[in-house]
Each structure stands twice: as structure tokens, then as C-alpha cells.
Structures
1.
Amino acid sequence: MQINNTNTEVSRILKVGQKARKLQAETMKPFLMLHRGVNAVVNIDLNSVVNQFDFNTEDFQVYPGTAGKDKLRSAIADEYFLGKANPENLLITPGGISGLDITIQNLTTKTIALPHFFWGSYAQLANLRKVKVNTYPSLQSLIKYPHKYTNQLVVICDPGNPLGEKQPDEDIYNAIGRLEQENINVLVDSPYRRIFTDTKDDFHARLLEYSNVIIVDSFSKSVGLSGQRIGFLYAKDELFIKEAKQRLLYATNGVNAFAQELIYALLTTTEGKQAVTDFKKKTASNIAKNIDFLINNNLLSTEFYKNSKPLGIFACINKSEDELLKNNISSVSMSYFTLETEKYKNHSRICVSVPHEDFVKYMNLLV
């Protein structure tokens, strides 16, 4: 067979996980799996929510529609956009990564501008769609020199991956506004933010002021349901949404109906809202304790956090991937998250969304 080469590689995160599980089986010793981007403090308790479902209805047994269920899109408009977004400009996607891929496919832009430290899958998606990768050093660079990114799609991920850094919201708005003046499109990817905020958060609503913004988000992190593969895509540009809907149609023919009903229940029912609140409270509390432990024990790579300490589910520590693995901790080398691969090989990204007791038990081996 003659095959079109994808020009992509297997995720380093996947490779690390396979290696850690193999070592765990060989040594018969448990590992703390911190290479993944999964909230693992607690599982969200879905029992009270699922018990309300009647699975023998069209809600579950009929195609859900390409754009997604109307009631779910309206619920997202209310929950994330304070009721100010048009649900017709929202699409339900099979996870955040699908929204990212559709965005890259949809635009004629041939270059994507990523933060200096970026999630590796951004670059792999760009390779898949034959788009070049560029990087920018900071939001301040976007604000001061927006013309440098003409004809590029600028990606802003906040809180960040891999560092977990949180930029001031006003800096994000200023950067988007400056780029809009240069007719430069911006993709805002913020799947971790809602772990730490509630319905009063106006971040998404304020993004509605800008015509150049595409928003991708998911429920993998904010409610701990990465296994359900569901997220959403928003853009004010109607042609963008029309074409994105067509790509979604022929890629999925609609996102899993159960996942949509589940998210709708979590956003709108008393039982669902309580389950989300409990999940967020426990998760955010353990993340904060774990980050403080890294800081207090001089494990955090402080040179990457000049303006703030990490907030998201990730943090960068001053130990190599191999060193951590020898101590039964899986991580991903920071060399995977930048174009300067050799420069940062002695630093690693870890997921800090795990039970604090387990985190301290393993990390104490490094102190």
C-alpha cells in the first residue's frame, strides 16, 4: 500500500507511561504516575446523576446531531459565557483535541505560534496538517510586537501546559486586543481554568468582545471526565462555525449522546452541580498543597515562574525524567515541551493533581 505519512510521532507521554508500567510490573513496586494530564485526586461521584437517566429513550439511542444537543449548547452558553454567547456559535466536540484539530484545518494559516513551552500535541497536530510551528516568548511579546505574528494562528493556553503558570487575565485580554488590531487570529485553550473557578467567572464572557478569538475547552479536566471525550468549540465568525460543523459531521456524525446527557446533568441539575462542586473542592485543595510542598522543599523550577507560582494541574520541577523514574515516579522531560530540546532536559513536567499524602510520600525521596 502507498500511505500518506502523518509526519507525527507517538506521544512522549504515552511512551513514558508504557515504560513506567513495565518497570512497575518487573520490580513489583508501585509507581506514582505523574506523566499524565489527568486529575487523580478523586473521581467525580456520578452515581446520583446517572440514576436519573432513562437509557431507553431517544436522548441516548438516536444520533445527537452534528453541532451537539441544543440544550447542552445553551447550558454551556449560560455556564461559561454568563448567558451572553449565541449557542449557534458553539459546537460540541469529542474532547478538546478535536476542537484544536478542526481549528487548524479550518484556517488557511500556514503557521501556528505557540508559547515558548507548549503541550507537545499542538506541534504534532500542526505536523499532521502540514502547518509550521513558531514560538513566542511571552504575552508581553504579543502585546509589544503583535506584527511579528502576522498570518499566524496564535495559541494562548492558560493556565499553561506544561508549566501550569497562570498569566494575569488583563494581559491575556491586552494581547488578544493587540493581535486583533493586526487581524491575527487567536486560539484560547483553557481546559484547567474551571477547576479553580465557578459560574461567576467572566473570562469566557469577556472573550466575546473580540472577533478574532476561537475558544476550545473540554470537560476532561474541569469535571474529571477525560474518558467521556467531550468538549466544545466557540467562534464568533459564522463562516468558521459553518465549515467547522462540516468537518465535525464527517469526522464524527455527532458526539456520544451519553456524554452529552451526562455533562448537561452536571451543569444543570442539583445533584450534578453538587458532584462538580465536591470534585473541584477536593481536587483544587490537593493541588495547592502539592505545589506548596514543591516550593517549600526547593523542588520547583523557580526560574520558570518569575511572575507567579503554578496554578494548573502541572508543575515543572528541577529533576530529570530519569532521576524521577529511578525513584518510582513517572514524569515527562521538559525537552519534549519546547523547540530547545537539549536545554531543559534536567527539568520535568509532573501532574500535581494527585492525593497529597501519596505525593508527599514519593517526593520525600527526592528531598
2.
Amino acid sequence: MVNLMKKILFLLLLLFIFPLSVFSYDFNINSNNVILINLNEDKILYEKNSDSKTYIASLTKIMTAVVALENIDDLSTKVFLTTEDFKDIYKYDLQTSGLKVNNYYEELLYALLLPSGADAASCLARNIGGSVSNFVKMMNDKAKELNLNNTKFANPIGYDDVNNYSTVKDVSILFKYALNNETFKKIVTTFSYKTHDNITLNHTLNYYANKYNLTLDNISGGKTGNETLSGYCLASLSLKDVDYMLITTNSKSSSGQLKDALNLYKYYRDNY
């Protein structure tokens, strides 16, 4: 019995002296900025340049959705797209959702987060904030409320602007906060949605998975982004017996960001 206790104490001592390899494994990450969190334990498992300033492209739309959801009284209210909502799209060559003129707020939110529609972002900002500039102020006020001290927003879309930036750690705080809203969580974990006038809104994750013949078996949803300053970005979720969140920015390829997520999720599910 005494020998057994000595062996157990020796093994425990080894664990403290030589940490499990899960924390030092070389993942060959494509993205420059990374943070992986175990949501059940609220614990950071892996990080790389997580506090460094990074441009975040359409991950900006996470905050756009948060401010919208917290200021919409009725998701079934109809709102209308106007030429004003396409002004920046033509100027910056941005992604549109394919929506028609009249839509419900709920549909605009799906258009915002699934195909990453810049038209939906502008329409939400204009209708909720009274103007896009006032809505951006609301976004920055919310960032201060959440103590996102290294985050600033310049537009609700996420197109390149030196004053639209964050860190992956700040984005993880924002994303986790957003997931407390059941509507937000439902939307970002939906891969295809049909509007009242039969327009199908597909998640950009579907597009990338099909393009590179990758399976999304360990990815439950999220939000993608891509601009010149930010590279390819991804805020993703893996929701199973253990829930994980991963934020990555500055990958040089869309396949790289997706492979980072698939590799990290698989490794931690197999070993952590």
C-alpha cells in the first residue's frame, strides 16, 4: 500500500514538472492571431498573438448583430433596403446577401451573419441607429461596456479601415457575450435559411467547405471574414460534449483558416 501511494505521488509530481503535450504541441498554424477557449470551463487552451492588434474584417458583424438584437423590439417588423444600403458595396466591392427590397429584421440578421451581407449591415445600422454613423457610435459604446479595451469600430460591415480593429482575445469576449443571446446563437449555428420570399441564405462556411472538399463535422457554426488588412478570419464554434470557441485572423488563405479550426478542434477533442 505504501509503495502504491509513492507511485501515485510520483506520477502526480511528473504531471506538474512535465505538463501534458497538449499545451506545447506544434499545430503548424496558418493564422497569425489565434485563441482557443473551452467554453465549459471558460479556459484558454491555446493562444498565439492573442493580445496583438489585428484587423477583423466581417467579424465586425458580430458586434453589428449584438447592437441590433439589443435594440430591436420586434424581429417580425418589416424594413426596406434602399439605394443608401448599397453605397459602400459599390465603393468597396463588398459581398451582398441577395435579399429583395422588403424583409423582416430577423431575415436581415440571417443575411448579415450567414452570407455576410454588407447590404444587411447597412440596412440594420440605418434603421436602428437613425444613421450609420450613430450606429457605429452605439457599437463603440457597447465595446466600452464589455471592456473591449483594444477594440474600435469605424463601420458596421468590417471593410478595411485603420480605425476598425480588435484583438482575437477581445473578439472572443464579444463572441461569447453574443452567444448568450439565443437568437444570435441560433443564427450562427444555422447553415442554410430561407426567407419569406424563398431566397436561400447559405453560410459562408458551406462555401469554403465545398470549395476545398472539407467536412465541417467538428465545426458547429461561426462567422467568417476576409479583407486585405485582416487576411482571412474566422470566429467558430465546436459544440459537442465539450464546447469550444476559436477565433483566428490573418490567415493568407481561406483554406488555411478552415484547416486551422478543423485541426485544433480535432486535436483537443482527441487529447484534451
3.
Amino acid sequence: MLVVKWPRRKRDTTPSNATFSISDPVALGYFSIGGDNYSGSVVGEGSALALSAVWRAVTLISGTLASLPLRSLREPEPGTRERTTSVFDDPGGIDGQTPFAWKETLFIHLLLHGNAFALKIKNGAGGIVALPLVHPLCVAVSYPTVDEIKNNKIPKGGKWFTVTLNDGSRPKYDSNDILHFPAQSMDGLIGLSILNVARNSLGTTISADRAAAKVFSTGALISGFITPEDDLPPEDVPEIRKEMERKVLGWENAGGVPVLNRRLKFTPMTLSAKDAQFLESRQFQIEEIARWFGVPPFELMQTEKQTSW
């Protein structure tokens, strides 16, 4: 007998510098802290965008706003304006995103996280030549501490931006290096994230999707029961099933009259009131998502109760 001994891999004991943002709902859900909602489902950008209504609302708003022109004007003389070139003509830089993709990503960050951040890339003269976007979960915003204020170490713009980089380092920047686009805010520090504010509505919708998937994977979806009026030997059951499927199922049997040489009773399975309410609740959740994003339901392809004109 030939015995093959596989070489054992040496375990890597090097300490990892991997970090995560304290506002990341996925990380909070892993440690069972924060991000709580009534349904118990973790609400993050991945799980939220997996909902068709959220995906449609986000792509509709971000794509529409990104298609609008972002022009820069200067005032050579008082009362006169003329168009001029600026970094917003190509904010992604030579090797970065196109202007449309840059604006679209910025609005996606604003819609989901309530904040958008861009790193200011400057030339030797101090002029801004590019504004690559930074994911909001990689940035922590804070006010200066009391000691920093006493020592006159006040950041420009009044905020510190601690950015988590790929190598695990966390440098601090101020408005000299970070451009911050906040949404509506309660404290003037950071914008409100719809993933947090609407976590109960989104969590309920995510749980409903999971429940529907569970029904299709393990639920009973048969159309009815066939019960014989007389006792049948076990070997006759497969033959009866084949005969029923051959004479009843399929488009070629539509409108036909099946004749079976058996004494059988068919009991159809109808949609229960509980299942009907489940379907109605899923339709309501689309309207709920439309309300959160300020989009008419018919823009999310919900045209059952409303006109599409």
C-alpha cells in the first residue's frame, strides 16, 4: 500500500495589522454589537444593495445626478462670469475614474453612508490635480481634543479625518488633504447614514427575502394531493404518478379532459391567508424603501397601485 504524506504548512504567526472601521455594520454584526434592528439581520451596503428596490433607487439617483454637468466658473470682472477648467473636469486623475463614474460613486457613498470623502492630490505649486474617492467606512471623523486646542493644534476646517490605509496605518488629515461631502447631519460632524437610520425597515426587508428563499428551498410547493379511495399496493404508486403527470401536466394537456382508470381524489393546495399577507408585506416594503429614498414607487417598477405616467 502506497502512503502519501502531505507536507504540513507552516503556520503564519506574524501579527496582522488589519483594521476595520468602528462604523462598519458587518464588523459590528460579527461581534454581535451595534447595528441592532428588530429583525436581527445585519444591514450593510452589500445586504442592502442585494434588495432590488434599494439597487434600483441608488442607481437611479446616482446615475441621474452623475449625468448632470459639473462646471467651474470664474469672475474676471465684477458681475461677469465665464467658464474655466478645474479639477472637476477630471477629478479621478489621469489613471483614475472618468468624471461620470467619479460623480456616480460619490453619490452612492452619500446615499448609503451619508458621507463622501475625497483625497486632495496636489502638484508642486499646491494646486489640486485629482480627487480620488475614499470609502466612507475607511474614514473616522472627529473634533480636536481639549489638549490639541490648548496647544493650538487645531485642524483646518475644524475636523480630523483618520483614514485607514491598506497597510494598516491610520494617518490623520484635515481639510488641507481631505474634501468632505456630508449629507444631513445631527451634530455637524458627519452625515446620517440611511443604513443606520433605516436599519429596521431594511432589516425587515432582508429578513423577508431570506424567508422567501427558505420557502422555495425547503418549503412545500406542491399543487395538491392525490389520495386513492382504495388501498393500493406500493408498486402501483409510481405508475399512477407517471400516468397523472403524462395526462395532466404540461401545456400540451391544457384544456384537455384526463381519463384515469383509477379511483382517485385530488385535493388542490390553495394560497393561505398567511401566505397572501406575506406577499402583501413584501409589496409594502418596496413602498417603504421608495419613501426612504424619496423616489416614487413607480420608478422602482411598482406600478400595481399607481400610474406609470
